[in-house]
Structure formats: structure tokens, C-alpha cells
Structures
1.
Amino acid sequence: MAANLDGQLVVAISSRALFDLEEENRVFEQSDDRAYMKLQLDRLERPAKPGVAFSLVKKLLAFNDDPSQSSAEQTGQPIKQRVEVVILSRNDPVSGLRVFRSVQTHELSVARGVFTRGREPYRYLSPLQANLFLSANPDDVKAALHMGFPAATVATHSVRAKDNYPNEVRIAFDGDAVLFSDEAEQVFQRQGLPAFQQHERDKAVQPLPDGPFKPLLIALHRLQQAGTPRMRIRTALVTARSAPAHERAIRTLMNWNIEVDEAMFLGGLAKGEFLREFEPDFFFDDQTGHVNSAAQHVPAGHVASGVSNQLP
């Protein structure tokens, strides 16, 4: 029987999102792919350092290290993987050698990869059944979002995640245009804060339409329910909303039968310092200002979704 990824949380990730390859990328941008390939091959024995999304990936893969799986293996039963991470990269196959060598050095259980040598990699998200796509290429991310996949452009200048919570995958989400649609954000952009507040007060018991990252939140919820004694997931909603607009956000999550562990209704305050205290392995937001504020303290990514990302 052919292998499949059914029922797994699948993360597709580019080389630059997983590893710090910014120096090599500058060579690519200033020269051509031949010089880049030679540099990567010359550095084959030099493992790349962890990148922005490394902590998130490493912790998610730890959900596969379940002691109960050992007994299944001993009895000859198939081992059920809960998380699959696939390298999905514009790199060429030669440069992919170094990527996989770095994967092995850092002891990441990543065995699958697609290398397209400059061509669009996002078309492979469908056969991968990806729940998340992380890339340093904003055009690829926009295309993935257009196709209906949760996707974010990693802020490669982000501070790397701390290791104070080794047994928790900690993920923070913005609300409007990320977990939820940008319906309310459109009201705010067109008519201002008072109209936005009134709109959300009038519709407090009406769930917000789905945003691009709802499927990821559902997949994380499913992974948490599957459980393992070694790992858990802790989520936070970090939004510019404030009372009374908070109610509709909470009621929407209740309607989805999904709980978040923390909720921050900041009323326009900068999110960075609050995220510094939460210490997520990754934060997703649709507004570049919030992403840049967050990136000073935690790994962050831009979700190019909603009215804030439409061209004027």
C-alpha cells in the first residue's frame, strides 16, 4: 500500500524558513544560481543554523515521540505519525543536499522534500495536503493563500524563539484576516473605530466568517486532542480588538468548539512586548506593522490576507 499523509498535521516549509540561509541568499540575489549552488556545495559539511521557524518545527515533530508508539512497534503494528514536515523549496536539488545534511545534524525527523530550482513550489501543496506553508518568499505565500492554504511569510529578521517551554508548542494568532475573515476590518477601514465597535456589538452573537488560518487552528486542536504525555499545544489570540468587540471573537471560537489558552484584547497597543511575555514559537498577523513589532521579540510571519494587504 502506498504511503499517505491522511490525518497528519502537514507543515510545508522552505529552506530559508527552517534554517538561517540569509548569507547564502544574498549571494543568490547578487549573482546567479550557479554561484549559489557552488557555495551551498562548498558548505555541505557546515550545517546551517536554525532559522525563524526551527523551534516551531522541532516541537511539532516531538508529537511523534509518543511512548505508546514503542509498544505498537514491538508488536509489529504500523506507527501512526501525527506530524509530517516537508521541505518545499525553490532551491535546486544540489543545494537540497546541504538542507538535508543540516536536517540530519539537527536531528529533525524530516525525510521528504521538493526542490524546484526557482520555479513556483506552492503547486505541490495540494498533493501534500498541507495544513501550513511557511516561506521567505512573499509571492509564494500569496499564491498559497489564494489557493486556500494557511500560509505566512517568515520575517527572517525575527528574534529566535526561547527555550523556556520545551514541552509546549506555543503559537499566537491575530484575529481579523487571520483566524477570522476581514469582514469587521473592512468596516473599520472604511468607517473608523466607532462604526467598527457598533458593528461588532450588533453582531456579537453572530459568528465571524472563517479566516485563512482556521484550518490550521482546527488541525492543532485535533493534534492536541490526540495527546502525548511529552508535548502539548498552547495557543493565544492576540488582537487589536477591545471591549465590546471582544465578545464576537470569543463567541466565534465557541461556535467552532475550539478554545484558546490566552486572549489579549489590546485596543491598538503594540503587540511585541505582550508577545515577548507569552514567548510563542511563532506569531501570525496580517499587518506588517504588527509583524515587525513582534519580530523584535519572537518569531513572526506575515499573512498577506484581507483588506490591509490589498493594493490601493
2.
Amino acid sequence: MRLPVARGPASAMLVEALSGVPARTTFDVTELWDADRSDDGGRASGTNADADPIRDEDLQLFLFTCYELHYRGFDGVDERWEWDPSLLAVRAVAEQRFESALRRLVGPLAAVEPDDVPRALTSLVADDDGPSLATELHRRGDLARFREFVTQRSVYHLKEADPHTWGIPRLGGETKAALVEIQMDEYGRGRLSRMHAELFRDTMRWLGLDSDYGAYVDAVPAVTLAANNLISLFGLHRRWRGALLGHLAAFEMTSSLPNRRYGDALRRLGGTPGATRFYDEHVEADAVHEQIAAYDLCGSFALTEPARASDVLFGAACCLALDRLVAEHVLSSWAAERSSLRLPLALGH
């Protein structure tokens, strides 16, 4: 993956630094964010003081670039940057701002008893009344908008399951077994042609899009990066293992019906069986995963680690809230007859 184009002073400093050698660059936190104000809206130097951290293009690209060092990295970037102490220190300040924004977004959540976590998850998902991209594309979507939608989703789906897999070594017993069961399906049970990321590539190719990993990072807005950064934030920090499981549960519990609509919409637009297979696969798989995620995964975790039961609901609430923000951004852009992307959509070769 190539380094992204900077969107502000922090991401510009980071992109420039990553072109050099670790240990020869020291990041001064005060040059990027005011750490003393991070809990009440401290802003990156030189950025809009009224910016919401979740919609802050500079902050979200900074975090995304930091996190990507833990996945496949960047062309020409020294892999030792992944654990560079000075970079991790400033990343922690950016994460603090992001976490504070997330807490403000979802608000206080009701206390939950460990044995009531599955029911609470079900209620949380049922109460979500955010706008539906699936309904819009199913009813009125054309190929141009479906391409745009797939471009927005490509940042996650081309590495689908990877962020949640960070949780496997941090769990044990029934909880670990349940997560492995879900992830095995995501990875096609060891068959490349059935891996969900590969199925999504087939969809992208049929639509004429560039299916290379990370091809459209520069094109998507901050809110889309934030939805992706959320999973990496939870996955890369052991303290957020409960939130990671809650995120996955919400993801699985809200997937089956929308994917049926996406598949039907693409068929209406002439999509071949190969092009729609990604969505059709999720209709069946996620209907099964829904119960596993709520009961075997999150239910067992809450009973094993009761002090972290509330983290499960926080992770689920964050998932639903950021998905809602992405949908609102896309739908409001379309209602105004403009693209939801930052750059004109470039098709593949």
C-alpha cells in the first residue's frame, strides 16, 4: 500500500517521517495536539478548532496511517516504525481524543448484569433507527452510486476480519472458541476463493473498481476512516477486548438483512452471481453468526469477566453510532446530488 496524501499538519508530519528512519525522528506532542485539552476537545495545531474529532480529516488519517503499520504496512516504509516509541506516544494522544469523542457520541449506557448481556445487545440493535444505505440502494440505487458505496466499504472489506482477529490471543475458553468459529467463516475456512475479502474483490472487479488493498483510502472521508479506526483501536488494545467483541456482535447482528438488499440491488443492476456472492454469503453466514456472537461470544465473555460487561455494550454502541454517521454522510451527499467521496472515483485497470 502506498502512503496516503496528507490532510493536515499532523498527517503531513507523519507521512514525511515515515519516509525516513525510525529513532531519528522525535514527535513533539505539543506540536500536534494539546494533550491537556484532549478530554474536552483539544485540537490539532493549525486545524479548525471547532472540528469534531470523528470528522477531523487530519486526525483520522493520522490514526489510520499509524494503525496500518500493524497490518500490511506501506511501500518503502521501514517496518521498525510499527513500534517506534515516539510515534506510539503521539498516537496515544490522538487515541485519547478519539476515545473522548466516542464517549460523547454514544453517551452514558445503562448498567448491565453479566448474564443479561445477550439480551441487552439484542435490545441495543433493535433500538437502532439509523438511516439505511441498503434500503436506498435497493429501491433507487444505480451503478454509479453502488460503485461509490462499494468504494466506501472497500477500506474495511479488503481486510475483512483482520481487526477482530486481534482478539483471539487475548481470550480463552468458550469465548475464544466462539470468536474462532466466526472468524473461520470470514476467512473462508482456509480456502482463498471463499475468503470474504476475496469475494469482495470479485464484486469490485465486476464494478470496474481497483481491487488493490487500500486503493481508495485517499478518496474516503474522515468519518469512513473513523469507522475503520474504531475496530483497530479496540483490536490493538487488550484493555478494549470486551468492546471489540461487542463491536463484532453488533456488526454480525445487523448484517444479514442489509446484505440481502445489497445483493438484490446489485442483481437488479445486472450483477452476475460472482459479483453478488459476497452479499449472498453474508446473508447465510451472518444469520448464524448473530446467535454465536450474542450468546457464545459476548455472553460467555461477560460471565468470565463480569467487570467488563459494560465494555461489550460500549463497543456495540460505537459500532452502531459510527455506521449511522457514515450512512448519514453518504445519503445526505446523494440527496444534495454530490459524491460522498473526497476525490473523483478512479476505476480499475
3.
Amino acid sequence: MDVLESLVASPEPAIRWKAGGGSRAEVRDSELVRELVRRLLTAADANVYAKWQGAHWGLGALADLGYPPGDEALVPLRERVLATWLDEDYHRDVEVASRAAAYRHAGVPVMRGRHRAHASQQGYALWYLNTLGLADERCAQLADLLLRWQWPDGGWNCDRDPEADTSSFMETILPMRGLWRHGTPRAKEAARAAAEVFLTRRLVFGRTSRKLIRAEFGQLHYPLYWHYDVLGGLKAMMELDLLGDPRCADALDLLESMRVADGWPAHARHYRHRPTDEIAMHHDWVDWGGTSTRRANPWVTADAVAVLRAAGRIG
């Protein structure tokens, strides 16, 4: 309860909102969010996928922070995102037999009946455009692409190795969230099928062992961007109302075990903070609190508390 009280008393409105103690209006008017929006609009001509400063990532951050839906000021960013992820090349399937051939042709490679698409791109856009109240009829096209590219096991994978026959966690989590938020019966059915990619592995473990699939899955990060970890997986299960599935229990236990005295830490990060208007690879406009093994990160803590409350493990 001390941790929860500290979150609700945070000077950062988005932290308070994540903890259930703030409002979206406060989030919109906060210094952090106003500066992020300013930078996104100032850099509107940058590549939308510029890591991590392009519109694709910035809109995703705003959606995660609780930015209020329907802001017309963000429409130019939406237009650039949709123009990028609905480009005609994404509507063109190209049958290829080798990794080399996949890079020689425009369009989406298809190998042995499976689309090798970077579905996390369209999936994330579908999620944040719906979350920010910016979705229009074109979002149905994003959903249609994801449905066409879905693999037999329920997920997605961009692997150009013809032998690859299992979905990728990183390419599956964002399409799953996007389709669920899109909300049509067919989209939600596809999202629920995608959830099995994670649930059959208890979110981070091997199918038949307690060994982590990847060491990084057992670390905590914020933001995740297109990456994956145990908290990201649990947040997605929370969105799909699946935390009560018994196959989430081991991941919830793992998350609880990571608590430090004042909350949950960020063990590692995928970004570098760059407090200038210059675009640089893997830099972010925001400093998301740094990393530590002993000190809590407020963004990770807010998400961990939200998940554990939803799972009934915090009152």
C-alpha cells in the first residue's frame, strides 16, 4: 500500500493516472506530455518509424500515458502513420523460396504459405489509433492486413528463414493488442487466438520447463517499444481480460518476486535520452527514469501495480 500511495501522490499526472488516481486532462496538460507533443509536431517530417522519436513511437507513448482521446492536433501524425503502414507494398504478396529472394522484391514475402510481415508495425498503429480516438475507416484496412498475415498457431513472424514455423513473441504482442482494441468480432477472435502463443508458454517460459525463453523476458523495461518482457506480456493479458487464466500464474509470481523496497525496477532499457530536437537512432524524447537493480522505476512500478491489482494480488 505504501507503493500505491506513492504512485497516487506522484507529481507526474500520467503516473497518477496509471495508478488510478489522476485524470486524462491532467495528463494532457502535464509538462512531460506537452513537451512530447511539441517535439512530435515539430519533427512531423521525420520518418514515422525513426527509433524512438518518430510519430509511430510517440503516438504509442501518448496512448500508454493516458492521453485523452480525440485530439485534432494529432491528426497530421495519424495521416502520416496511415500513409506509411497502408502503403501499396503491404497489399502485395510475393511468393519467394529463400531469404535472399525475400529482400529482392517489394511487397510482403510469403514462404511455405506463411506471410513474413513486420506485423508489429500495423498492430501497434491499430492499437494506439483506437486508444487515442483517432481511428477511422482506414483502420479496418490495418486489421485486414493483420488477419491475412496471421499464422496457423495464432501469431505473426517476420523471420525470412523458410524453416521458421512458429510465431514470434515480438511480432505477435502488438497485433494481438491492436486487434483486440479494434473490437470487431473477427478481430477479437483473432486476438484471442494470438493469446495462445503466450499462454501455452506461460508468457515467458518454455512449453515444458521453467526456463526462460530469453533472459531479457525476465527483466523489466519501460518503454518496451516493439520488444517483450514478462510485464509487457501481463499488461497485454490484462487488456484481454485473461489474467485469471491459470497459465498466467507463474508470470505473476515472477513479477511479484522482482519487487524492491520502493516498487519495481527497470533492469534495462532500450533507449537513450536525447534532450534536443535532433533525431538519432534509439534516442527518445523522454527520460523514462533510468535503470537500477535496487531502486524502483516509477513507470515500471505503475504498470506492475496495475497488473497485480487486476489479477487480484493487490487490494
